[in-house]
Each structure stands twice: as C-alpha cells, then as structure tokens.
Design goal:
The complex is a heterotrimer of chains A (about 300), B (about 325) and C (about 300). Chain A has twelve helices and no strands. Chain A has about 300 residues and is mostly helical. In chain B, helix 3 crosses helix 4. The chains are: A mainly alpha (about 300), B alpha/beta (about 325), C mainly alpha (about 300).
C-alpha cells in the first residue's frame, strides 16, 4: 500500500467537483421543465399553433418537420384525423398538471391527518390505521380506477377519485413514522407538561415539524400521479377522449407505430420528461430538506 | 524485556472529503511489546481510531488512504502485503474490538456461528474441533455456560455479555496483537471495571499485545503499561503510565490529567482546556497545540517541535523540553 | 410464532370482510344490473324474473349475505357481455398472468439483488452510475410507451421477436423484459440503499476485522440484514406487478387477467371487473400475510419475541 498505492487526491477531488456540477444540473433542468409544464398548461391557447381538437382530413399523418414530407406548419406532425401533435401535447399538459395538483392536495391532506393520528395517538387506532395503510399500499390503484370507471363512467372526477382513494397511503406511512419520532421529542413532552391538549400538540407542535418531509414526498409523487393518469388515459379509463391527454395520444398511435410513430413518440416523451423532472426535483429537495429520507 | 511485536513508524493517513484533505494521522510512531498494553489517549477526532483502523488496513474506501509510513508486525511490513495476505492476517494475527457491543454483532446469526466463522476461516479444523475452539474462546472471556450461550442471538444478551462475545471473536484465533477501540466506553461503570480486569487476565493467559484506544485517563491508569498521548493527528508524548501520571512533560498531557476529577487532591478545582482542537483540514503552522497552550512561546507559533527522547522510554514533542 | 401467525390470520379475515363489503356497496352504486341486460324486446315480467334470479328483490343485508355465500362457493356471477361465469373466465386468464408475473418477478428480483449489491459495493463507479441511470429511466418512462417502442424496434424494425400474443418462449421476451424493466428500479434502489446502510454498520466492520473475504462479508453478513428492509415493501412490489400486468397485457395482447379487466372496462362489464378486483384483493392480503411470516423468519428478534 505504501509504495504501491500512494496516490494524490486529485482523482477524488475531481470527482467531487463533477458531483457538485451534476447536483446543480439536476436542480436547474428539472425546475425549468416543470416551469415550462406549468406555463404550457396555463397559456395553452396562446402557445398552441392550432386548436387541439380541430380535425383536418386533408392534413392527415403529416410527419414532423425534420422528416422528409414534414413541414414547419406542423412541427411535430399530425395524427390520423389531421390534428396538430404539438398543439395536442401542449394542451395535454393541462390534464397532467390539474390531475396531479388536485390528487396531491387531497392525498397529502388525508395522509397527513391519518399519519399524525396514527403516529401520535398510537394505540389500537394507530394499529388499525397502519394495517389499512399497508393493504392500501399493496393494492394496485389501476384496478380501483378501472372499477370506478366502470361504476361511475370515465371522467375527470373519476380519475382524481381513483388515484386519491389509495394515494394517501404512502403519506400516512411516512408521516406516522415522523410523528412517532416527534412524540418522544422534549418539546412535545414540555407541551404535555404544561397541559396542552393532544389536538393542540398535533397541530401546533407535530405538524410544523413534518412539513419538510411532506414537501419532499409530495414532489416525489408528482411523477407517480402523472404516470398513473397517463396509464388510465391509455387504457381508456381516464379523461374522456375529446380532451387531449398524453396517455390517450400514445394509445391513438399505437397501431400505427410502424408508419406514423410520431403520434405515440412525442406525448410519451412529454410524460417521461415531466416525470423525470419531478423525480429529480424531489431527490434534490430531499437531499436539501431531509437527507434522512434517503430510502424514499 | 519481551520482544517488540508491533512497530508503527511515521504513519500518515489522510481522508479526502468535500471540505478538503484531512490529515487524520500525521506522522505517528510507536511500538508495542508482547504481553504489553499500549494506550493511545486523546480527545475525540484526534485520529486515534483512524490509527487503529490503519493498522488493520480497514479504512473506509475510497475516502481514506494511508499515504506514508511503515506498520511492522512481527517483522513484516503490513503495508507491503497484498490484499489477500492482509486479509489472512486479520482475525488470526491482529484483531480488533469495537466500541459499541450493541451494534458490532450481526443480529441475524447466533454468537456461536459468528465465532465459529472466524475459527473455520483461519484454522483448518473439523466441525467438532471448531466447536471446541469456540467454547474455549467463550471460556477465555469468562462467559458463563458457554455450551448453552452458543445458540443465543445477540439480542438475547446484555451489553456487557455482548462485549465479551466480541472479545471472544477477537481472541478466537489466538492473535498476537489486539486493538481495542474504546471497548468499555459504552458499558456501565461497574461492568467497565469487570471488563478491564477480564482483559488483564486474558492478556496474562495469552501474552497478547494490546493497543488500547481510549479518551479516559482513569481507564489508562488501570489497563495500560505505556501510553501515547495523541493530539490532532500526532502523538505528542509517550511514556510509561506511571511516569506519565507522575511527571507529564507536554502541556497538553498535564492539562488532560488535570481535567480528570480526583478525590485524593486537596485542590478541588477542575481544569478544562480552553478552546477547540484545530480543524484537521487547516492545521496551524507551528505546534498544533499552540493556540490552546498556556505556556506557549514565539517559537511554538512558527515551527513544529520535533520528538525528543528524554530517557526511560519517555519522549515528548514540545519546545519547552528541547 | 404460532400466536403471531394466528393474529395475522384473524386480521386478514377482518380485512377480507371489509373489502367484500366495499365491493358490494360499489356494485349497488353501479346501478341496476338489469338495465344492461335489457333488449328492446325484454318484457317487465322478464325483468322481474331476472331480478328474482339474481336476488335483487331482497333487502340489502340479505343480498350481502347471498353475495358472500356465492363468493365462498367460488361464484362470482356472470359476465354481462359474454354470458359466462366470471370464475371460468378468470380461471382461463389467471395462469397466463401468473406465468408473466412470476417470470418477471424472478428476473427482476435476481437482477435487483445482483445490481443493487454491486452498485452499493462499488459506489460512484461506472457500474453504480449506470445502475442509477437505469433506475431513473425505469421510474420515469410510461410502461405502455416503452412497450410500444420495444415492439417497434424488436418486432417491426428488426423482426427479431413476435409483436404480441402467446406461444413459444420468444413471446415471453418482450412482455417479461418490459415488465421487469419497471419492477427493477424500485427493488434495486431499495436493495442498494439498505445495503449501504448495512455496510456502514459496526458488525460489517467486525466481519472484516475477522479477516472474512469480501464476498462472504457482502453476500452472507450484509445481504441477509439488508433484505429485511426491502421485504416490508413486497406488498408494493406486488401492486406494481399487477399494475404492470394490466397495462402490458393490453399492449402485448397477452390473454391474462389484466387484459380481461381491460376488455371488461371497455364493455363496462361490471361482474368481471368485480371478480378481478376481489381476486386481487385476496392476493394482496395473502402476500401481506406471507411477508409478515417471512419477516419473522429472517429476523430472529421477531421470531423469538412472539413465542
């Protein structure tokens, strides 16, 4: 080791620097992509060159501009009904964004309340809640969604309900762990000594201390919700057809994959890019706010 | 005098971190004889544990690396061994006891399995001979009813018992050198005294050389024959335990000894050392103890003192002595 | 240990009752089933007759009891569209799904262990980064899309593999490959991170101090401990397999339970969807039970405490 292995630290220092640059890239690029998603969703009517639903049978199956036969009039080409793919991808952002925001709002609220109750109060209530959580975690959301779509008919509300109905479980499990840990903290003991009610302790002392992990898991779940929504739309259990959604667009192009591959390719790329960004941003936030959550 | 079994010369170990290069061990030299216990004392972060891990060549990779010096065990420089040769040395020639008995045993295997593993690896024995060795190791560490405890899992034992099991694992292949890294720190005071007495006994029976790493001068006094006082990656003073307590020459040693509460002194004052140890990425230019030293001179700021042998196995690195 | 299993069994039964109630309520929410059976020529008398046959003229609690009784006899009702017992339809489809699911699980589990452990022990190397990259992609790309692209590349463009359906081993490659691609990242991440935690522990240091070869340190001492944490998420992995199967069976036209439920969705055939959901619910509970028992087996601390 002494003579053979004595090395300068340069290699390691270099890789540390590279790691730092990489870390910053994994913040800025995902943040930019997500900002773009939000902008596309809000300003879709101004950004999209065409109406997403306008059919033009004379303009069917035009390839994207960089392929022979394509034109800059339809940058990403058109589908079987002559609808502009780019416009549909831009409008599709609305579905992904609105579903994921609403679902995360609902699931994080339910999960937080149940998690704090299970963690802080514990006892039989806690045990029952955690058993329900375990089963919910193990139940495939997609089947519930199919069941609901059959019972209630596919709609925006059905999709949100279907993803939320089990989506609270990961929150509940994480928050319970945090509440369990905080229950033993000195400031909670202090609050109990001065006679604060359990409700007050949960709201005033426990909740503010779980906001960081909550933000992390909420960000990390953006991708999962968007993926689930896309899968439901693909299966036809999602938002009904006239509204453009990325998953349904991939479905539309699936049988034409050998000739008009662009119909499926671009919406799929949009899903992948947004989910990737959400995951990266979540990872970054986790490292910043709560490195203990490495397991997530 | 018995033969020198371990000789460490000018050991340099560094860590590459995001904050820069940490010189955790910065030129450490000492030796240990057969049947002798050499203590390494110092505050946490002074590099004493890293010294122990360096001898075993078990630094966390790739951040930690030995960049200079020699570690000679029974005539062989460990730093020149191949990885495989070094591994054969571990457990059989050198062993180590870690600080926390609660976490240093594998929770999913019985203690018998964990000792037998070592025996099987280093000694070519049949199964019943292995079990005999395991039981004799447990007996050496005075674990009651060893034939029955063999089948226990770590969580079924108390902390003190677990630390004995760790000791049994370490001693199971009759090593020549044992490194004990704060083996009593995690134990209750009464158990601590038992454990130290136990180890003195083990040493008498096996003639093993021990490097005893601790921050506790009380333990040093009970356990060690000679002591090295470590500060910020360097051994600043080495002497026999008796000599060190009687006539400490380095101001840091005196300060450490004075910070131990003693009932046999009229003066009830407790001394503490002002300031913090220096940052290991940015050591002072002169003596590394200079910023906290109450008797420092100008030369201490400018130049690092060399090691001076003042006779009777006592050496010091301080400008006041040279 | 015995007591522990009995308690878990009882909990499973309670959960089953809960789920059957839930499904029953949903079934009533779906509206009058006779509406779907009507043809222009159906008379009121026929409707009343059908209602009597289905027990729809009785009170709700009575209907629930009948529902549960039928469940115990393995009677899940009849498909509205195909006019066949749901049990038969599921019975035909299930083996196909199991073949797909079990093969994919085995493939991805083996790879996850191998890659997860290698990534953890060779941190920040090319291999580790490659594994991380693969995991990131697998968790972000939509399954149906990757499956379609895979069909395009391997079947349409290169003519290497069949596009869909069942048959010889070649038919397995794409469905199993894509399903494994999505199961792998989660498992691999878990194995890797739990392995990293374990490798950091004192008993691993002690194993190295003993002079054990790195191979034994990792595959014997570290892995067994590292498996305890991921085991708790086996339920989630199971849910992922089902989700993946529902989507990919549809893309690859694989005649399993997933495709069955999709066909039922398109046709709004409630009894079939209900049957599949119930089946999966039972499987979920069984998996959870099995995990608990396995967990006790791996971790002696639990095994001993409960006796």
């Amino acid at each position: 080791m002494s003579a053979v292995n004595v090395m300068s630290g340069k290699g390691i220092e270099g890789s540390l620097r590279r790691a730092k640059i990489f870390q910053q890239l994994t913040l800025y690029i995902p943040a930019a992509v997500l900002a773009l998603l939000v902008l596309a969703a809000i300003f879709a009517p101004f950004l999209a060159p065409y109406s997403p639903t306008k059919t033009a049978l004379g303009q069917r199956l035009i390839p994207p501009f960089f392929i022979e036969g394509g034109s800059t009039a339809h940058l990403l080409g058109t589908d079987t009904l002559g609808r502009d793919i780019l416009s549909r991808v831009i409008f599709g952002a609305r579905v992904s964004l609105s579903v994921s925001l609403l679902v995360i709002l609902i699931t994080s609220t339910i999960g937080t309340v149940l998690g704090i109750i299970a963690g802080y109060l514990g006892g039989r209530t806690g045990t029952v809640l955690m058993r329900v959580t375990d089963v919910s975690l193990a139940f495939p959301a997609i089947l519930i969604a199919i069941l609901l779509a059959v019972v209630l008919g596919p709609s925006f509300k059905t999709v949100v309900l279907a993803i939320s109905i089990l989506g609270w479980a990961p929150y509940a499990r994480l928050i319970r762990g945090e509440a369990l840990r905080l229950r033993e903290a000195d400031f909670v003991a202090q609050a109990r000594i001065i006679g604060s009610s359990p409700l007050r302790i949960m709201v005033r002392h426990i909740f503010p201390n779980i906001i960081n992990p909550l933000i992390v898991i909420a960000t990390l779940s953006v991708g999962l919700v968007i993926l689930t929504e896309a899968a439901l739309s693909y299966l036809g259990a999602g938002i009904p057809p006239t509204t453009p959604s990325w998953g349904a667009m991939v479905y539309d192009g699936r049988s034409l994959i050998d000739t008009a591959w662009w119909i499926s390719l671009f919406p799929g790329m949009a899903i992948g890019l947004v989910v990737l960004s959400g995951n990266f941003l979540g990872d970054w936030l986790r490292d910043k706010l709560d490195p203990r959550l490495r397991q997530l | 005098m018995s033969k020198i079994i371990l000789q460490v010369e000018g050991l340099h170990t560094v860590f590459f971190t995001r904050q820069g290069v940490v010189k955790a061990v910065d030129g450490v030299s000492f030796y240990v004889r057969e049947g002798e216990t050499f203590g390494i004392v110092g505050e946490s972060g002074c590099g004493k544990t890293v010294t122990g891990l360096s001898i075993l060549r078990l630094l966390p990779e790739p951040a930690g690396r030995i960049v200079g010096g020699k570690i000679i065990l029974d005539g062989k420089n460990l730093l020149e061994l191949s990885k495989k040769e070094m591994r054969e040395y571990r457990g059989s020639m050198i062993s180590m006891i870690l600080q926390d008995p609660m976490t240093s045993l594998n929770p999913v295997y019985t203690i018998g399995d964990q000792i037998a593993e070592s025996v099987r690896l280093h000694q070519n024995l049949k199964d019943d001979a292995v079990e005999k060795e395991v039981i004799s190791a447990l007996r050496l560490l005075k674990i009651p009813a060893p034939e029955m405890r063999l089948h226990d899992y770590p969580f079924q034992m108390s902390g003190g018992m677990r630390q004995r099991v760790v000791g049994a694992i370490a001693m199971s292949c009759h090593p020549r050198l044992l490194i004990a890294d704060e083996p009593t720190t995690a134990l209750d005071a009464t158990i601590q005294a038992q454990y130290i007495a136990l180890f003195k006994d083990v040493q008498r029976q096996t003639n093993v050389a021990i490097v005893f790493i601790t921050h506790d001068f009380g333990v040093v006094a009970q356990m060690c024959h000679r002591v090295g006082v470590m500060y910020a990656g360097k051994i600043v003073e080495t002497a026999t335990t008796r000599e060190l307590f009687k006539a400490p020459r380095h101001p840091y040693t005196s300060a450490l000894i004075n910070s131990v509460p003693r009932l046999d002194r009229k003066d009830n004052r407790l001394y503490s050392i002002e300031g913090q140890p220096p940052s290991m990425t940015d050591l002072p230019r002169g003596c590394r103890f200079f910023p906290r030293c109450s008797v420092a001179r100008d030369v201490c700021r400018e130049q690092e003192p060399g090691e001076v042998d003042i006779g009777g196995e006592h050496s010091v690195s301080c400008w006041r002595v040279s | 240990m015995g007591r522990f299993i009995v308690i878990r069994l009882l909990q499973t039964v309670v959960a089953l009752i809960g789920i059957s109630l839930l499904i029953f309520v949903l079934a009533r929410l779906s509206g009058d089933p006779t509406m779907l059976m009507r043809t222009p020529t159906t008379t009121e008398a026929e409707i009343v007759n059908i209602k009597q046959q289905l027990g729809l003229d009785k009170s709700q609690p009575e209907q629930y009891v009948i529902f549960v009784k039928n469940l115990f006899r393995g009677d899940l009702g009849e498909s509205i569209i195909k006019r066949r017992p749901v049990t038969d339809m599921i019975g035909e489809a299930l083996p196909n799904s199991l073949r797909l699911g079990i093969t994919s699980f085995a493939v991805s589990m083996l790879l996850a262990l191998l890659l997860g452990v290698l990534a953890a022990t060779r941190r920040d190397t090319f291999l580790d980064n490659g594994v991380k990259f693969l995991a990131v992609l697998g968790q972000a790309l939509p399954g149906f899309w990757v499956a379609i692209l895979a069909i395009f590349v391997f079947s349409v463009y290169w003519h290497l593999l069949p596009t869909s359906g069942t048959g010889g081993p070649a038919h397995y490659v794409l469905p199993v490959g894509t399903l494994s691609f999505f199961l792998l990242p989660g498992m691999m991440r878990l194995v890797r991170s739990s392995m990293l935690d374990v490798l950091d522990s004192e008993y691993i240091k002690l194993a190295r101090i003993k002079g054990l070869p790195e191979r034994v340190v990792i595959w014997k001492h570290a892995l067994r401990n590292a498996l305890i944490a991921p085991l708790t998420t086996a339920g989630i992995i199971f849910a992922n397999i089902i989700t993946g199967a529902v989507i990919l069976e549809n893309v690859f036209n694989w005649p399993g339970v997933g495709r069955l439920s999709w066909e039922a969705l398109v046709a709004r055939d409630f009894p079939v969807v209900q049957g599949v959901t119930l089946l999966v619910a039972v499987l979920v509970l069984l998996v959870n039970l099995l995990v608990d028992i396995l967990y006790a087996y791996i971790d002696p601390q639990i095994r001993y405490q409960q006796t």
